[in-house]
Amino acid sequence: MYLKLFIEKFVIINFLSFILLSCSDTGGIDDLVGSKELIVLTRNAPTTWYEGRDSIAGPEYDLINSFALHHKLNVRFEIIDSIDEILAAISSEKAHIGAAGITITEQRKKQGVIFTAPYQKITQQLVCRRGRALPRTVDDLVDRNLTIINGSSYIETLEKLKLITPDLNWQVSKDEDTEQLMEKVWNNKNDCTLADSNIVSINRRYYPELLVAFPISDEQSLAWVLSPKWSGLKSSIDAWLSEIEENGELAVIMERYYGHVELYDYVDIKHFRKRINKRLPKYQNYFKTAATKYELPWTLLAAQAYQESHWNPKAKSPTGVRGMMMLTLNTAKSVGVTNRLDPVQSINGGAKYLRRMIKRIPAEIEGEDRIWFALAAYNVGYGHLNDARKLAKQLGKNPDRWLDIKEILPLLSNKKYYRTLKHGYARGSEPVRYVHSIREYQQILEQQL
Q1: Partner residues linked to 196 by β-bridges
Q2: For the segment 382-433, what is each residue's pLDDT rounded down to a tens digit?
Q3: Architecture of domain 269-448 in CATH?
Q4: pLDDT (tens digit, 9 = 90+) per residue, 232-251?
């Protein structure tokens, strides 16, 4: 009898020990510090991770790097095309964290991943175009062409709504992302699409005719996902999120990307003509001096400055650019500007940087096209411009002619193309509008002065 009790006690003790060992086998922050790099899966998109004018940027990029700096970790980002693929890779323990604007949903909780505490609240919004009657209820969508991205949380929302409105139907695009579908709505190719409110806030400045018809979901949360093997990271991440929420760092990062101050304000010509008389005279000689030094038309430099800041030497944006020529900190340092809010320094720095861009443009690009290429590079980055030239050649276009390149640059926001390019995603339609506006402003200046 004593032997039987001993065996039963031995079995129970070992079983409990096994459970404790299993629980402690989940990786935590101590398993990473000083020995391993943090592997993070994300998407190449403006709300996550992308290559900016001077460096990598994006809300997820900034948050991950803040967490890594807090714990003195090295980070390796891996770019994955879709959230579905990220969830599958995380559940298969191929990385530590998925940070890609991932909405917490009941179905996703069943996919073998662990969600951290949320860091951002969003709502799913129905996005349509101005110019026709907007749908006001789900019933109004029955006769509309509604297209959404594949593998998204929008599908879960629509499936629930279909239980109430059985005639509700939608199409799923497997080859496009949300930004592309919004552009299709803007171009009148689709009636409506669904997008998270943070995505809408970034993209509506580029497509001003887009309107939010109504929120199609309650408030939802975005969070990172963890592999079960690394579930021990959750407590460290949650504690850090709580800390940066309290000290304001989280709000600063969100303001940087979702603030309502627009970097590029497309004003009408009437306002521009008024400012030629009211603002330009104070700075006109600065433009002429800098333009002479760097062999540029002064009207071109003045037009570019207006596009950047509306000739406001104290202009600031949440993305970190400053001054009359809206220089980034890195660009300012590279051209010897110590005070970006000094109009003389800013104008000279901008002129020097533009001349540098012009010199970098390949010799086979001739005439005024050299200037338009340089302005595009000034706006979107030289790497993205090179990607556009490479893509133009692949598509049978002339990579040395602005007429062709301005058709190619918008394709840099199309997953079909940017996934094959060295520098990845870019808001390619922006430099096209940037160059167009500067050319228009310059022409008006030359006619009026």
Answers
A1: 124
A2: 999 999 999 999 999 999 989 899 999 999 999 999 999 999 999 999 999 8
A3: Orthogonal Bundle (1.10)
A4: 999 999 999 999 999 888 98
pTM above 0.90, yes or no: no
The residue-averaged pLDDT of 135-151 equals 93
- Active site residue: 51, 60, 308, 430, which one? 308
Task: Give the least confident one: 79-88, 145-154, 257-266, 325-334.
Answer: 257-266
Contacts by residues 243-247 (CB-CB < 8 Å, ≥ 24 positions apart) = 244/66
Closest CA to 227 of 61, 48, 99: 99
Domain-wise residue ranges, the chain = 2-120+222-258, 124-218, 269-448
Q: Is 278 exposed, middle or buried (0-12, 13-18, 19+ CB in 10 A)?
A: exposed
Q: Is the dihedral of CA 34, 36, 41, 44 positive or negative?
A: positive
What's residue 251's pLDDT? 85
The answer to whether 304 and 350 have CB atoms below 8 angstroms apart is yes
Q: Where do we find the tokens 């002129």? A: 351
What's the CATH number of domain 124-218, 3.40.190.10, 2.102.10.10, 3.90.550.10, 3.40.120.10? Answer: 3.40.190.10
What would the 3-class secondary structure string for the chain be?
CHHHHHHHHHHHHHHHHHHHHHHHCCCCHHHCCCCCCEEEEECEECCCEEECCCCEECHHHHHHHHHHHHHCCCEEEEECCCHHHHHHHHHCCCCCEEEEEEECCHHHHCCCCEECCCCEEECEEEEEECCCCCCCCHHHHCCCCEEEECCCHHHHHHHHHHHHCCCCCCEEECCCCHHHHHHHHHCCCCCEEEEEHHHHHHHCCCCCCEEEEEECCCCEEEEEEECHHHCCHHHHHHHHHHHHHHHCHHHHHHHHHHCCCCCCCCCCHHHHHHHHHHCHHHHHHHHHHHHHHCCCCHHHHHHHHHHHHCCCCCCECCCCCECCCCECHHHHHHCCCCCCCCHHHHHHHHHHHHHHHHHHCCCCCCCCHHHHHHHHHHHHCHHHHHHHHHHHHHCCCCCCCHHHHHHHHHHHHCHHHHCCCCCCCCCCHHHHHHHHHHHHHHHHHHHHC
Q: What is d(CA 256, CA 318) in angstroms, rounded to the nearest whole number?
A: 4
**Residue 430 a catalytic site member:** no
User: Which candidate, 90, 104, 66, 86, places its Cα nearest to that of 236?
Assistant: 66
